[in-house]
Write a structure and sequence with these properties.
Blueprint (H helix, E strand, L loop, with lengths): L21 E8 L8 E4 L2 E4 L1 H16 L3 E8 L3 E8 L31 H20 L12 E5 L2 H13 L14
Antiparallel strand pairs: 1-5, 1-6, 2-3, 4-5
Length: 183
Amino acid sequence: MITQPHHRRSIRLPGYDYTAAGAYFITICTQGRECLFGQVVDGEMRLNAPGEIVRAEWEKSAALRAEIELGPYAVMPNHFHAIVVIADDGRGTARRAPTARRAPTTVEQFGKPVAGSVPTIVRAFKSAVTRQINLVRQTPGAAVWQRNYYEHIIRNESSYENIAAYILNNPRQWEVDRLFKAG
């Protein structure tokens, strides 16, 4: 019996240049949607030690990468929402809607990171958080995040503002959030 190799299907927009200047909304969920980063109390997120690691590593992302700016973000009990802005001219125009363009040299493929791309930024963030949390918990090699993440290209100012409001209000909406998991 010959078995076919498993091919992962990308959820990225085919042919899109994820290094393009603009704003991107990302959501990353914990493995098994485990409430790992703290809890929401009276509509306010209270981070525990792993949640503080997530916050610190995200804020460190902009310090490490001159091409990005951080928009609003929220560390939730079992997921993380953020807007990341890839800026023009190193640290330029924020909130600029990207235009879809084909750029074969900057389109990431599995196993081939592209510096400054959204997938590479997310991969580095997830890796740093996982490494730090596993050190604290003394659980080397344990999964912290689900394998992939959700990403949305923000195409205009109105969409940016709506998503920013959603992120900032997420703790107050926790019990009606589709990612809510009691416990």
